[in-house]
């Protein structure tokens, strides 16, 4: 017999899966909770019970994509702090490319309006912690000039986000995004030549 918690988790997963399918067919802006409910085979109220707004549903979908991209990036670790930062950024950019329209909608909506404990807030805190740790290790190894890790994160995120927006707007292809990010980080962090 399936537990209530497992049943809830299964419904949660099915709603996300159904939402992905509907969004893939008709785009995020044309998708309604009613469409998702019909696709998932649940009542509209069930969709709202799990995701009170379409923005929260979209945020959860994008968070799954970002989580998968980060897991994939963790599987290989290039040498050097800057290269690791760029590698992870590239994986994230690839993740956003799965549904650029959804990424634009969620990123635009979640930058300033993300609820306490939301997937975006939790993922950002984890990402910040990882970047700060990478920078601290790079400083310890003498790869980059000393910088307060929190400031380093803000610097990294500013460059990362600028390249992300350029990609989502179609102004930068992937190689240009990564080159811009790498070059900007090397200049900002005073990367030392390692021989």
Brief synopsis:
This protein has helices at about 5-25, 35-40, 45-50, 55-75, 80-95, 100-115, 120-140, 150-170, 175-190. It is mostly helical and about 200 residues long.
Explain what you see.
The chain is mainly α. The protein has two domains: about 1-50, Arc Repressor Mutant, subunit A (Orthogonal Bundle); about 55-190, Tetracycline Repressor, domain 2. The protein has nine helices and no strands. The chain has helices spanning about 5-25, 35-40, 45-50, 55-75, 80-95, 100-115, 120-140, 150-170, 175-190. The protein starts with a helix and ends in a 7-residue tail after the last helix.
Which terms summarize this structure?
single chain; about 200 residues; mainly alpha; Arc Repressor Mutant, subunit A; Tetracycline Repressor, domain 2; 2 domains; about 0% strand
Question: What do we call the CATH homologous superfamily of the largest domain?
Answer: Tetracycline Repressor, domain 2
CATH topology label of the largest domain: Tetracycline Repressor, domain 2
Radius of gyration: 19 Å
Q: What does the average pLDDT come to?
A: 85
What is the C-level CATH assignment of the largest domain?
Mainly Alpha
Helical residues, percent: over 70%
How many angstroms separate the termini? 62 Å
Structural class: mainly alpha
SS elements, strand count:
0
Uncertain stretches = none
Sketch the topology as an H/E string, one letter per element: HHHHHHHHH
- Morphology: elongated
The CATH architecture name of the largest domain reads Orthogonal Bundle
User: How large a portion of the residues is in β-strands, by DSSP E?
Assistant: under 5%
Sheet with most strands: none
Give me the oligomer status.
Answer: single chain
